[in-house]
Fold this protein.
Amino acid sequence: MKYYIIFGPPGAGKGTQSLLLTERFGLKHISTGQLLRDEIAKGSETGIMAKAVIDKGKFVEDSVVMDMIKYEICNPGECVKGFIFDGFPRTISQAEAFDKLLTECGNKKVNAVISLVVEDGVIVERIRKRAEIEGRKDDASIETILNRIKTYHNKTEPLILYYKKRGNYFAITGEQSVDEIFETICKIMEQINNEQ
């Protein structure tokens, strides 16, 4: 099993690339945002709790997120060769808990962290465009967009150094075309698959 993290600010194209990579490499795409939305839609105990937290503009507790991730890892389904995590981990504490979980699962580790680097101004334009196309009200407000970017810089960006120290961090420009980004990521992942 391979464990990849696709990393970057909101609107960097993580979801788009994740879906392309699942098809190319037989990976299971795990988006913690989508997992939480699914729980909310089901009206589960986790979903009810998560909705209350999210509605206040806060992050769901790490323990809840880790329980969902653990369930996904332990129940991969047939023909799954690995996982691509999109929007997770978001913080150093989540990254540490994830490393511990992989160790507990049998000495496994994150194979690569692929970071899409995009300037703040480009992110704002992309998110506003996405809001228009998809009708996403949460993305329509410039104040909300800027707050999400600020949260990314403060809470998530420190993960860059965390993974650089482990030697599995790969930064690529996220301001190329979707196809160019995809081919660059594929080369990185093929190299990793050949080495291990």
